Amino acid sequence: MQSFKELAAAFSTRFNTSHFPTEPRTLYAANDYFLKLGGKHIRPVICLMGNELFDTISLDAWHVATAIELFHNFTLIHDDIMDAAPLRRGFETVHYKYGSNTALLAGDVMLVAAYEYLNKINSNYLKPVINIFSKTAREVCEGQQIDMDFEKLENVSLNDYLKMIELKTSVLLAASLKMGAILGGAGEGNQNHLYEFGENLGIAFQIQDDYLDAFGDPEKFGKTAGGDIKQNKKTFLLIHVLETANEQLQKELKELLNNNAEDKIERVLKIFKDCNVDEWSKELKHQYFNKALHHLNEVAVLNTRKQPLKELADFLIQRDY
Amino acid sequence: MQSFKELAAAFSTRFNTSHFPTEPRTLYAANDYFLKLGGKHIRPVICLMGNELFDTISLDAWHVATAIELFHNFTLIHDDIMDAAPLRRGFETVHYKYGSNTALLAGDVMLVAAYEYLNKINSNYLKPVINIFSKTAREVCEGQQIDMDFEKLENVSLNDYLKMIELKTSVLLAASLKMGAILGGAGEGNQNHLYEFGENLGIAFQIQDDYLDAFGDPEKFGKTAGGDIKQNKKTFLLIHVLETANEQLQKELKELLNNNAEDKIERVLKIFKDCNVDEWSKELKHQYFNKALHHLNEVAVLNTRKQPLKELADFLIQRDY
């Protein structure tokens, strides 16, 4: 059994090759550029871990892991166009560097390349793997649309926000694990528990992300605290406060959102604390984290085989920076 | 054996259903809207014809034909964004009606839906069909990039233009036929002859399209003649004249391209005629058309089975409007 760190290093080495034809350069330079910006490779590695849970890692699992990473990068390139984002991982986004049209096409061929990698696997597994991959791809697009819709709404319910996070973030983690498990010969029960593990872990991770943006230590977190507050971004915290705070605090909060006072972040944070949203979100995160661990426990393989996944979950969730 | 008209009617009936989930409406309304705008369905029907050449049309061929039509619509939605086109088939484009971000996502899920239809076919055919489908999808994206690159170049060689047309237009026709043939149990030789037939037919069709834009009867053609000339669009005609005209005519032509004189279309057409480009392009079209027919003749099935494809080729190419 290999740790996340070991597998991430192995994946990076394998992934660090050209995944596209040489010509036309005007198109594929954009793809190569974006892939060179790196990334944490959580999704492909979690696929490898789902595979190793049941067997030694197969060549098929490496192909699917590569497809997953290409798919993830396709979503980032297109999301950056939609968000008009100038930077990604500290570097120019594809559409800033190569123009929106080339970025659009670079995303399109990245998605096609993902399917080309999927198509390399053993024929027996092709149909179930493409099935879950395509369903997930569709759901991630749906999540992105719902997220954009939310920007235009004044009120979003916690349930609707949860559903959006599930689609936009969690299902890809869940599906990555499940595809790895399928290729390892896992039965349906085990596949489903792993899917649930990934889905709940993804939600816990997003709750933590929202929490850290408000309350994290900027030095450890690597970005200025309160970015979400500044942009009026819907987060677990904001939605909860808007749903539960008393009338006076709600009024104050809405006024703050509608103006861009210099001390907006400070004052919103004060309301958050007055509503105990920091404690509430920690508690919510732990609920989802525990639900995730429950499903991992239910997977019918030896406990020792689950160790790397448990360590990864701990690492992803219990970090306090 | 069914004619193009019969198969087109049957395909339209089958295709006229919802290919997407109901929610989120903000996304899928865009997909449903665009598919309702219709289209000639040449590509899916040619897939069915490739299939019927060898056997009665199978359920798998209907799935692949649907995937091809969804793929074609994906390219149209994204191309319209790139061209900032306000209209498609006389109606508002998706990005005009729903915004660029939703149009981008609508295209993305359209491509994913195409793969979902492919994944419905018999497992035995899945790998070869996805193989050619993905290769073709990649090539169509490459063709679109090269086309955009050409807009920025002053000179494009006839060879480079041909290569672009092959990628942007011909390979999808060729691949549609080939996938239909694969599903009909065709051997490799027959598959390849059909591919060549489709590819050469596609080029002949584009030459005719370029010809008709300059010399077609506007009343029969349904659009104003000279649209390509007005926009300085690279076409078989313009490229040939720029490659072959004498110095004096080249100078005159380049001046016309750099200004937008009121009589630009008339004067460019006069140069085209002085260079006999109308005759030249008819001759070139016939060369590709004949090459296409040669490959169709080489397909080892009874001549009577080829009749619908021959009629379609005649209809597509010999029309003079």
Describe the structure in your own words.
2 copies of one chain form a homodimer. With 321 residues, chain A is an all-alpha fold. In chain A, 76% of the residues lie in helices and 1% in strands. Chain A contains 16 helices and 2 strands. In chain A, helix 8 (158-183) crosses helix 9 (188-215) and helix 13 runs antiparallel to helix 14. The first copy, chain A, is globular and about 60 Å long. The interface between A and B is large, with 39 and 38 residues.
Produce the secondary structure layout:
Two copies of one chain form a homodimer.
Chain A: H1 4-15, H2 25-36, H3 42-52, H4 59-83, E1 87-88, E2 91-92, H5 94-98, H6 100-118, H7 123-151, H8 158-183, H9 188-215, H10 218-221, H11 227-230, H12 236-244, H13 247-258, H14 264-274, H15 277-298, H16 303-318
Antiparallel strand pairs in A: 1-2
